[in-house]
Amino acid sequence: MEKGIIGLASDHAGYALKQYVKEYLDRHQMPYRDYGCFSEESCDYPDFAHQLAEGIEKGECQQGIGICGTGEGVSMTLNKHANIRAGLCWAPEIAEMTRKHNDANILVMPGRFIDNETAEAIMDKFFNTEFEGGRHIRRINKIPLP
Ligand code: RB5
């Protein structure tokens, strides 16, 4: 999978895991762009999730990682954007399937419910699994509303 630049977004509840994600990306020499937030001060996840989605739409980054406490709010926000397929993953097997079947372009993780080791295994699968294509192309093409 062509990784390109990876956009990052979190709220305060995802900030700590986002810091760990940056360590992971540095270790793997994967370039990233951080759309915030930039501290653990309470904030609103849509403010940063929309910036990440817009970054992909503008071509500033090619894939993304979004994190909030549960992953739900960031996931709901990202998936409002027509060309975003954000997959909420709490286990590596789900990350593998959302790449194979959904061609997810953003990985969403629940910062308050997984540890760093699990996040690392999830990212390993997400960034090293190809879209299977075939019948799944027809299905993902049916996701956007006209
Ligand atoms: C923040 O308290 C929390 O609501 C947020 O991180 C997220 O879990 C929302 O979906």
Give structural notes.
The chain is built from 6 helices and 5 strands. It is of the alpha/beta class and 146 residues long. The radius of gyration is 14 Å and the shape is globular. The termini are far apart. It has one domain (23-141): Ribose 5-phosphate Isomerase B, Chain: A, CATH 3.40.1400. Helix 2 (45-57) runs parallel beside helix 3 (72-78) and helix 4 (92-100) runs parallel beside helix 5. The model has no long low-confidence stretch (mean pLDDT 97). D-ribose (RB5) binds next to helix 3.
Element order: H for helix, E for strand = EHEHEHEHEHH
Whole-number average pLDDT? 97
* C-alpha geometry: globular
Tell me the strand order in the biggest sheet: 2-1-3-5-4
Using DSSP, what is the number of strands?
Answer: 5
Oligomeric grouping of the chains: single chain
Q: What is the annotated CATH architecture?
A: 3-Layer(aba) Sandwich
Low-confidence sequence ranges = none
Distance between the termini: 28 Å
The Rg value, from CA coordinates, equals: 14 Å
Q: Report the sheet-strand fraction.
A: 15-25%
CATH topology-level fold name: Ribose 5-phosphate Isomerase B, Chain: A
Ligand kinds: D-ribose
Tell me the CATH superfamily. Sugar-phosphate isomerase, RpiB/LacA/LacB
